[in-house]
Amino acid sequence: MRLPSCPATQILRDQFGIGSDTDLVGEWVSFAAGTPDRTELFGLRGINRVVKNYYVRFIPDELLCIDGQFRLENGHKIIYIKPGISIKRLRFTIAHELGHVAFHVLAPGFDQNAEGVERLCDIFAAELMMPIRMVQELGKTFRGSEVVLALSKMAGASLPASCIRVNECLGITSGLATLDGDVLENYGYLPSKLNPSKELVAGIKAAAQDRCGLVSVKDWLVDVSISGNMAIYTASRLPAAA
Questions:
Q1: Superfamily holding 133-237
Q2: Which of 95, 108, 130, 145 has its CA 20 to 30 A from that of 55?
């Protein structure tokens, strides 16, 4: 994960020290949550903690053209929400808007539409809902595609968001495909010989027949799990032969 190079990021560095980008984001989210210990704060619990800490109110707005928007009105922190979006999308939207709230607390006069702020709020939301330490622990317990499923379930995050987070935190290529093996979304490096080559499609299909499994495709290992009508896959390069 790399933070955007922009004045907004510099504000975070000035507040929390230079450190690594990962440590910087962790400090920012912990500050917003009001505690350095976020072991049990993830998903909805993390969201609720920041909402409570900053006294945030929510108002539905059917005229809103985006999923959510933070506004400061008469000193009150309000997040307007577009009704009708899915629950998992709603959670990430709220987490993203809480990033705007948290940034406002640090820099009240800063333009929230400035370069890099939207990206920073996405990063804030990902760390709030799916802390890197939790993802790393899941990576020690589950195999590749199962990490995505476990993370989605524990954090209440969508499968695409979970795939992205696994790629960010563990460096594992991950993605979604149909049960027929057609790649829908891919996050991370995947060589052209595998995507969307016949070899990768065949590997996903073979694994999907067993509902989960590992398939060797040339010098790559494809790991697939099934969730409903969706295949979740991870791909990693096999170690070179001695």
A1: YNR034W-A-like (3.40.1840.10)
A2: 130
